[in-house]
Amino acid sequence: MGDTATLEAETDAGLVAMGEVPDDVWLDVASGARFVARHPASTRETVFLGPARVRACVDHAEESWLLRGGFDSVPGAGERPGGEEWVITPVASIRYAAVAMRVSVSDEETDVQVAKGTVYMWAAGDAAMRITSEAGSPLAADGGPSRENDEGWARVDGGFHVKIRAGRPTTGAAREGAANAALAQCRPAAKVAHDLADQIAAPDASLATLAPKHVSARREARAACRVALLRIESLAPSATRDSDLAAARAAEQSWRSLSDTSTEGPQVSPMP
Hints:
Blueprint: E1 4-7, E2 10-11, E3 14-15, E4 26-29, E5 34-38, E6 45-55, E7 63-73, E8 85-88, E9 92-105, E10 109-123, E11 127-133, E12 149-150, E13 153-157, E14 160-166, H1 174-201, H2 207-233, H3 239-255, E15 257-259, E16 268-270
Helix pairs in contact: 1-2, 1-3, 2-3
């Protein structure tokens, strides 16, 4: 299952380990342990609860991946205008600026309890989302996020509880199929974002029309492709995994890039 490292982190007995957190390997957090990660640029802190398998500060960004285990966010550290933290699970992408919440991830479900603040939830195409109040009543009549839907994201405020369940098995041999399904959602989403970037670069582009669409498309592509990458990278090493991983990374680069048509041949310029 790719590169992994074992992390004891902080237990009831005190701090066991401290140091730089690797952002390119899966970390196994021991049962009963708390692993606190602080981003070096923003100083935002996030807490992982064992037993868990996680990646922190993925690609040196404020982004965490949870294959399983718990995650706590407490408002007050490292927050700034426009600065968002992302949390990626096998069935969902979550983004927020300042929030008190707990995320619990199992093989089949992502469970999010929002105590304070606002989070935005995106469910993979093969997963189902249900949002309820603390009293247990659904946010919408069908138990879905339609009343609060914001460009493909469900807005969830403090006092609400979200469950996102996988529509297909994500364990054993079925995990490869789940990874393929996520990749099939990532690639067209990346193309839409890339094509909109090209349209914005045209001399006669209408920024008032295209810019908001591009922002929305980039969020959608990031959400879909990060879920795909998480699912693929968690697979056992194989030729198929390597091929799918290359395809997902190419799609990821595509939505982050802008074609340069001013020179002969395909050129790519990275976008922030």
